[in-house]
Amino acid sequence: MMVLASKSPRRKEILDKLPVDYRVISSDMDEKKITADNPVKLSKKLAEAKGLKVSNNSKEYVLAADTVVSFNGVTLGKPTNSEHCRDMLMKLSANKHQVITGVSLCLNGDVVYTFHVITWVYFRPLSNSLINWYISTKEPFDKAGGYGIQGKGGVFVEKLEGCFYNVMGLPLSRTAELLGHHGLIDWGK
Ligand SMILES: Cc1cn([C@H]2C[C@H](O)[C@@H](COP(=O)(O)OP(=O)(O)OP(=O)(O)O)O2)c(=O)[nH]c1=O
Known about the structure:
With 189 residues, the protein is an alpha/beta fold. It is built from six helices and seven strands; from the N terminus they run βαβαββαββαβαα.
């Protein structure tokens, strides 16, 4: 059996699309302790740290991921309050940004493989009333960049280039490829 090291309900929902036998153990890591000089490195370092933390106490393969939003090379994490969220959404308004998810597979306290996937997301111009309404739904607060493309935040998105599931927290096809390579997926005959 494999372990998904994540408290994110979205990652579980995405992994449930694959024929993989797994259970969930949250890594509960303090993400602020980890830094990197660019968003791609940060997403991979965080994914590895989450995976290793759980893998140190497990004999099974451990899958972990981290999603960051990068706007003009600056990392946007989860908004801490309404003002922070408003600032983020105003930056993203009428602009394009990258959503980067780092994914790491660990075994016996070592990293087996880590990769990242980038999706470009293009936002429509957002009015103040739209942003206020969105903040009032409370949807943004546990999400990188302050929005959820799979939820009401989908209203912001004009188009995207790349994997939709990557924006939601786990790039489905690349993850399937990785797990298949390590014999963790059973597609049947
Ligand atoms: C941009 C965007 C992010 N997100 C979410 C995915 C991630 O769950 C979250 C980014 O935070 P993460 O730190 O990647 O993950 P997490 O804290 O939710 O879960 P864990 O560390 O236990 O695995 O933002 C969306 O759900 N939709 C979106 O459109």
